[in-house]
Amino acid sequence: MKEKEREERRKQLAAAMGEDGEKEFHEEEEEEEEEEEPLPEIFVPSTPCHILCGFYSGPEKFWVSLFGIETEPIPQDIDDPKAYSIEDARKKREHDKLMKEVEEIKAGKREQLRALRNEFQKLLQMNEELPKHMQFKRTDFDLDSKIRAEINKKTVRKIQQVEKELAWDKEKHELGLMKLQNRFRDSLQSDAIVVHAIQSDHKIASYRLMKPSKYSRAKQTSQSERRPSKMERFDKEGVGKQESQKDKDFY
């Protein structure tokens, strides 16, 4: 809107005064620029703040008072990566507050259980002090047998739930153990055994023996099943003849 008004004003001056109108128009613009703009109105909130206050100290300059906080030294930046941020600190405060309330509730419940346990022990002691024919049986103190059965069922359900949750970890560790046994234990025929003497420092140990491989077992069976060669038969017969000749010479 201001641009249109200025353009119309310039045309009117130019039509009425010619070149002098242009000069007059430029002079008016310079005077308008030299004039100071009025300051905006001071905003006064309905509920004033006791800490923050501010006012315009000059054109385009707004001074804010922080109730003395602005005179304090500027805090240093936290460079430690382990330090809590503002959001983490807020979450930690909320968590600590919640945990404190939970601990207070637990402490109250424990105190109630302790009082009930002491009262129950007193009842048992009073029952033992009565004559035998007047004493109650231990089962008579169970107000409702279904309560104990329900507690046992809940315990069993919790155990089953925990077993289901840990089934994957259990299977993982069993497979790891199986692999280690296959790698280091199943290949042994006998493990090392060390026997220590009682009255001396002597000790005796066996060796770790590896199981023979399939190839070595097959080789042993083939050697035991094959027929002896002529040289082997000759050696055996020659040794036998020599021994018989020695026996004859001896006698």
Automatic annotation (TrEMBL):
<keyword id="KW-0282">Flagellum</keyword>
<keyword id="KW-0963">Cytoplasm</keyword>
<keyword id="KW-0969">Cilium</keyword>
<keyword id="KW-0677">Repeat</keyword>
<keyword id="KW-0175">Coiled coil</keyword>
<feature type="coiled-coil region">
    <location>
        <begin position="99"/>
        <end position="126"/>
    </location>
</feature>
<feature type="region of interest" description="Disordered">
    <location>
        <begin position="209"/>
        <end position="251"/>
    </location>
</feature>
<dbReference type="GO" id="GO:0005929">
    <property type="term" value="C:cilium"/>
</dbReference>
<keyword id="KW-0853">WD repeat</keyword>
<protein>
    <submittedName>
        <fullName>Cilia and flagella associated protein 44</fullName>
    </submittedName>
</protein>
<feature type="compositionally biased region" description="Acidic residues">
    <location>
        <begin position="19"/>
        <end position="39"/>
    </location>
</feature>
<feature type="region of interest" description="Disordered">
    <location>
        <begin position="1"/>
        <end position="43"/>
    </location>
</feature>
<feature type="compositionally biased region" description="Basic and acidic residues">
    <location>
        <begin position="224"/>
        <end position="251"/>
    </location>
</feature>
<keyword id="KW-0966">Cell projection</keyword>
<keyword id="KW-0206">Cytoskeleton</keyword>
<dbReference type="GO" id="GO:0005856">
    <property type="term" value="C:cytoskeleton"/>
</dbReference>
<feature type="compositionally biased region" description="Basic and acidic residues">
    <location>
        <begin position="1"/>
        <end position="11"/>
    </location>
</feature>
